[in-house]
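ARCHIVE CARD
Drawer: 12
Card no.: 0347
Subject: one protein chain, sequence and derived structure
Cross-reference: see card 0346
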Amino acid sequence: MNPMLKRSAIAGGPGILRSLASSWRFTEIDRTDGSLGPPKRRAIGEIYALWHQHLLMLMLRHRDEEIAVMISRSRDGDLASPIVERLGFEVVRGSSSRGGSQALDEMVRAADEGHALALTVDGPRGPARRSKPGAVLIASRAGVPLVPVVAIPASARCLDSWDRFLVPYPRSRVYLAYGEPIPIPTSLAPGDVRGWQRALDNRLEHLVNLCESAAQRRWPKYRPA
């Protein structure tokens, strides 16, 4: 990206995103009885686990909460990091493919310092709707539970990206659902991790179905082959 355009995006992006989010109408679905209501205040000491498709909505819903998030060491990440920081997040640079071990250590440290954490568990490049081991490993080492969370808009633009990224239109209603916290054992055998990943995937998909039913919309999950 042209350096001037990059500076403009960093300077103006947070304000534009805040304005967009302020027009959305967030509604939380109670995971126990399916009732609808205003979003509840979240507990600290959790790791929010989400699909990359829902990133924009959940990032803006939880802005200014000093949640620690991981952003990849890429050109896209170089642009996103200062914008995300100005939205009130603690940024850790790294991903499963670049700087993963150091980033994992820093996320555990952030949890020890009292930050809630958030991870796009199928990011940064997919495959979509299949979690990677990072969230399970961080939860195990940090001794904090994983909380699956989804956000489904009633109206949005669905991008032709690997994750079918959703950008709600102004004034759209956005349905949120937070799953039961998943406590991950602090001692994990290598063969156990995949089982916890599958459990997380299943709970995320259950919440997607719950929210899509409320929104009366079914959004694409994958880019067509």
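Annotation on reverse: The first helix runs from residue 3 to 23. The chain has one domain: 3-155+162-214.
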